UniProtKB/TrEMBL annotation:
One of its GO terms (molecular function) is G protein-coupled receptor activity. It is a multi-pass membrane protein. Residues 1-20 form the signal peptide. Belongs to the G-protein coupled receptor 2 family. Adhesion G-protein coupled receptor (ADGR) subfamily. Residues 391-637 form the G-protein coupled receptors family 2 profile domain. The gene is LOC101140763. Residues 208-385 form the GAIN-B domain. CDD domains: 7tmB2_EMR, EGF_CA. This is Adhesion G protein-coupled receptor E2. GO terms for biological process: cell surface receptor signaling pathway; inflammatory response. It comes from Gorilla gorilla gorilla (Western lowland gorilla).
């Protein structure tokens, strides 16, 4: 009996994987990692497998099952890996991640608490050489090497402190070209967002606020999934959004919503370009004149960055609301909500896609955006010329009346032989130029649909108005020469001189000026709202320069003429016909100087508080130029009135003769009819 017990004990030692069973009901030959079923069969333990489920021969073995092999039936969750063990498996956090629960291993996704224990790789932008920037990234790298999840709060403060100091005193960053400064800003904004998103996941639940001396602020809220809206408030910005936007689908961990304000970033983003989407360009050009053409916008607000634990923020299901506090808006300027769009070259630009301006007050603006990035409020670089319906009505009515008067004046100068002389020729050319310029202005100034056509219209208007002012200069010169030669009975020398001079100067000088302007900058003819000269790069002075010069010369010639006339009047008989003609000439020239010179001077003076008053005066007087020319040079001329009387008598005579002829014809027709006797 003792021998049998000893034999059974020895067999059990040779089969350590087999469970100790009662030898009377169990097979003694079960392989390692198996259990006895009965006296003739065995089964592999959990985590092991054999060729058949029931083992009936001692030659079969139980092999370990690799639960982590592909395709795996085990789901460990994010930031974790599956590790096979003898008869089982373990889930462990991937390198760079640690479990928040403290447990080194776990069995399934529901037990996964792995979090990033490092922050994203953040290195200096390539091709930028700056000692200040290198020192900043050295600090970032030091913080990354020493980082532990429990130090997330301190690390966030250290990074933002370093950034705050860098932007407060950029040093050699300010000496970089503007494009490189924009690239640095783009790199800092993008990297900061990634770093803060990763670090904030290791913060405890709740609201956290950080602020720094130069104005940098960070507001964070970390929470489990909740069904409510969240509001983050800072000194210069407020963000409101639905908390569901922060939660990534299938992510059981806490969600993060963050808002960081970086006022110092504005130094690096100075003169950054703004690219408008096509639809918004069309809308703005329909409602505003001369908006955002080749000019850099002005940054009104602090630059802010918004981020969520959910990386997919390019097309949010509900808009995010931003309320910016900013500097006062300059009157008659356009305010836009924009975001920083990172470019493929590592730089970027301001854009408006997905962002709309909901309302603007003097020092605040509300924006809605359907994506997240870095945001700001911009102001158009120059005035928004909004349409004034009253000025529009005055302009079109005044110019229409002027066209009629200029046409009548031109016909008078052509047909009235009693007044035809050199002075009348000057009036005629001036009237023709103004007539064509006003007519083209009325019918084509708004024809901006075709760029080439609009440029041609702008160039033609430029030429016609310059020609009108040149003829005005010739008028002033002729007045001066006439006054200087009052004692000369024969003015043939003056007339010959003016006839040789006036046409080459009157039409040639404006043609040369326009040709030079068109050859140097043809693309500046025509704006998105008007077919006229663009104000950028001083191009408008191709018109204003000659106008100001002509007005100045005319004023000098006019004053000299008055001085000459005063001296002559004191020594000549006032009853002399030549003197009376000269007085009338001086009166007409005075009226013309006021009409054609002062009105455009009012146009230049449309700045400051009196801009609106000057605009009305300019529009009213300038649109009635033709009326005043017809009044002064036709209706106030005794010779012209006599000629009008003759024409009127001739017309009445023709009308009377026509009526008499009609009556005579009717009478003859009646007498020729046979009488009818009843």
């Amino acid at each position: 009996m003792g021998g049998r017990v000893f034999l059974a004990f020895c067999v059990s030692l040779t089969l350590p994987g087999a469970e100790t069973q009662d030898s009377r009901g169990c097979a003694q030959w079960c392989p390692q990692n198996s259990s006895c079923v009965n006296a003739t069969a065995c089964r592999c333990n959990p985590g092991f497998s054999s060729f058949s489920e029931i083992i009936t021969t001692p030659t079969e073995t139980c092999d370990d099952i690799n639960e982590c092999a592909t395709p795996s039936k085990v789901s460990c969750g994010r930031f974790s890996d599956c590790w096979n063990t003898e008869g089982s498996y373990d889930c462990m956090c991937s390198p760079g991640y640690e479990p928040v629960s403290g447990a080194k291993t776990f069995k399934n996704e529901s037990e996964n608490t792995c979090q990033d224990m490092t922050f994203s790789t953040w290195t200096p932008p390539p091709g930028v050489h700056s000692q200040m920037l290198s020192r900043f990234f050295d600090k970032v790298q030091d913080l990354g090497r020493d980082y532990k999840p429990g130090l997330a709060n301190n690390t966030i403060q250290s990074i933002l402190q370093a950034l705050d100091e860098l932007l407060e005193a950029p040093g050699d960053l300010e000496t970089l070209p503007r494009l490189q400064q924009h690239c640095v800003a783009s790199h800092l904004l993008d990297g900061l967002e990634d770093v803060l998103r990763g670090l904030s996941k290791n913060l405890s639940n709740g609201l956290s606020n950080f602020s720094f001396p130069a104005g940098t602020e960070l507001s964070l809220e970390v929470q489990k999934q909740v069904d409510r809206s969240v509001t983050l408030r800072q000194n210069q910005a407020v963000m409101q959004l639905d908390w569901n936007l922060a939660q990534k689908s299938g992510d059981p961990g806490p969600s993060v919503v963050g808002l960081v304000s970086i006022p110092g970033m504005g130094k690096l983003l100075a003169e950054a370009p703004l690219v408008l989407e096509t639809e918004k360009q069309v809308l703005l050009h329909e409602t505003h004149q001369g908006l955002l053409q080749d000019g850099s916008p002005i940054l009104l607000s602090d630059v802010i960055s918004a981020f969520l634990s959910n990386n997919d923020t390019q097309n949010l299901s509900s808009p995010v609301t931003f309320t910016f506090s900013h500097r006062s808006v300059i009157p008659r300027q356009k305010v836009l909500c924009v975001f920083w769009e990172h470019g493929q070259n590592g730089c970027g630009h301001w854009a408006t896609t997905g962002c709309s301006t909901m309302g603007t007050r003097d020092t605040s603006t509300i924006c809605h955006c359907t994506h997240l990035s870095s945001f700001a409020v911009l102001m158009a670089h120059y005035d928004v010329q909004e349409e004034d319906p009253v000025l529009t009505v005055i302009t079109y009515m005044g110019l229409s009346v002027s066209l009629l008067c200029l046409l009548l004046a031109a016909l008078t100068f052509l047909l009235c032989k009693a007044i035809q002389n050199t002075s009348t020729s000057l009036h005629l050319q001036l009237s023709l130029c103004l007539f064509l310029a006003h007519l083209l202005f009325l019918v084509a100034i708004d024809q901006t649909g075709h760029k080439v056509l609009c440029s041609i219209i702008a160039g033609t208007l430029h030429y016609l108005y310059l020609a009108a002012f040149t003829w005005m200069l010739l008028e002033a010169l002729y007045l001066f020469l006439t006054a200087r030669n009052l004692t000369v009975v024969n003015y043939s020398s003056i007339n010959r001189f003016m006839k040789k001079l006036m046409f080459p100067v009157g039409y040639g000088v404006p043609a040369v000026t326009v040709a030079i302007s068109a050859a140097s900058r043809p693309h500046l003819y025509g704006t998105p709202s008007r077919c006229w000269l663009q104000p950028e790069k001083g191009f408008i002075w191709g018109f204003l320069g000659p106008v100001c010069a002509i007005f100045s010369v005319n004023l000098v010639l006019f004053l000299v003429t008055l001085w000459i006339l005063e001296n002559r009047l004191s020594s000549l008989n006032s009853e002399v016909s030549t003197l009376r003609n000269t007085r009338m000439l001086a009166f007409k020239a005075t009226a013309q100087l006021f009409i054609l010179g002062c009105t455009w001077c009012l146009g230049i003076l449309q700045v400051g508080p009196a801009a609106r008053v000057m605009a009305y005066l300019f529009t009213i007087i300038n649109s009635l130029q033709g009326v005043f020319i017809f009044l002064v040079y036709c209706l106030l001329s005794q010779q012209v009135r006599k000629q009008y009387g003759k024409w009127s008598k001739g017309i009445r005579k023709l009308k009377t003769e026509s009526e008499m002829h009609t009556l005579s014809s009717s009478a003859k027709a009646d007498t020729s009819k046979p009488s009818t006797v009843n």
